[in-house]
């Protein structure tokens, strides 16, 4: 039986604090074991403010559907358990040197993205997908944060599968009616 081990790697991105992570994976003739989280390894690349995950969600999303862009008052570690997504991230932290920067990542099993608080997270399922969120804060209705319309042309996000704004199977009304980046800047008083 042959064994192949992929080591843990974490890379910086275009957005300050956003990390693209390749998990440690061990593959043999039986299949693959992926480390979703190991505190001793992740503590070296995540901010000291992350003291533990308070909530973990798993969503099942159909091919072509878009979720987000959401930036609640929490940091997130996101990945897929099954399937693949086109992930999109926008820095909405007014005091960040990368404010307004967009980063996209193709996420498959074994690829994770650490999303700092204040960075909007969204994705489009490229096939039927199970998407995992690790949160450092429990979600609550009305919690502070930002949201952006994922179809805002000024963001320049090229969703791989065309999105029909009137199709609720592809995008929620809440997401399609979220502010544009320009509207967010007006709300924040940024020119």
TrEMBL record:
The active site is at 70 (proton acceptor), 133 (proton donor). InterPro entries: RmlC-like, RmlC-like_jellyroll, RmlC_Cupin_sf. SUPFAM superfamilies: RmlC-like cupins. GO terms for molecular function: dTDP-4-dehydrorhamnose 3,5-epimerase activity. The record marks 139 as: Participates in a stacking interaction with the thymidine ring of dTDP-4-oxo-6-deoxyglucose. GO terms for biological process: polysaccharide biosynthetic process. GO terms for cellular component: cytosol. This is dTDP-4-dehydrorhamnose 3,5-epimerase. It comes from Candidatus Eisenbergiella stercorigallinarum.
